[in-house]
User: Fold this.
Amino acid sequence: MSFEGKVIFESLSLVVVFVVFEFGDFVVGLERVFDVIRDRRARTVGLQFPDGLMRYAVPISRLVKDLSRVEVLLSGSSCFGACDVDLRLLASVDVLFHFAHAPMKRVKSLDSRVVFVEVSSSLPVLPVVKSAVGLFSGSVSRVGVVTTVQHLHTLGEVCRVLESSGFDPVVGVGDGCIAHPGQVLGCNFSAVAPDCDEYLFLGSGRFHPIGVAIARRERVVAADPYTGRAFVVDPEPFIRRRCGVVARALDAESFGIIVSSKLGQERLSLARELLGLVEEHGKRGVIMVVDVVKPDQFLGLGFDALVSTACPRIALDDIESFRVPVLTPVELEIALGLRSWEDFRLDEITCGR
Ligand code: SF4
Assistant:
């Protein structure tokens, strides 16, 4: 943990000190936390961190308590994304600070006491972006650029690298679930600009770039600042795995349809539609409402397959943990013969602007 104090403006009468709150590879927007506490005269505040930041939760809690002289309650509940606000903690605090996720419209409108505190990565991105540039096809002109929330502040420099290499970078604007141009979520690819020749994804892991490739059916180059690797994404193994999961559900007679009670994931009306489809096809279904989806919850309930309307990544990331196939809503339509594989896409939680 380090705090870097920088004098950014100085004159005879005025000194402005800009403090950067840096924890490991992350810059945390704590100045916003202090401003909100002061402006709202908060006395009790809640702090909610995702797993990746939990190791800094205690020092940040102490810092907020000591500098603002407020009572701090730290959330120990899940924090998978902006979709997942700790509503129980919210009931006990004046302000709930939710770290590391950009606001989502369906959650933001809930209560002005929920304040999203964005956290950015301090890792340099230009070396890996320069490596990625060499992986685009020769004929490419328009390159769609997307990233995850912690690298958004680098999009300007990323676009300049692309321009200086002769490309025309395009940053799309997403729907109401997406707070910033060029931002992608595991459940929302609406900010992936249409009509580009190829795409650049900046960030870690394979899920998001695969999602971009499936959403736009174009070639995607991924640049990972954590590993320093740039590579071309191949979505085919992922799609083949999903074909296998759907195939295992073809003979299912009984479906458990999962609805999350988390504010940003709750899709009860979609679950009702899916239940209607299941029953129209002579099968049985039950809607189950859960908070955190865990494989054990469904043991012994007799379902042949599950359909998740909760976070789309549950069906896609955790397949090994479930004893029965877990489908997305799109995949249920394929299993019931209502959609073809050519029309396969990832499940997305969308929000109108
Ligand atoms: S629904 Fe899933 S992918 Fe979407 S924001 Fe929440 S945790 Fe992330």
Observations:
- The longest strand covers residues 2-10.
- The longest helix spans residues 236-249.
- Residues 80-83, 185-187, 264-265, 311, 313, 349 surround iron/sulfur cluster (CB under 6 Å).
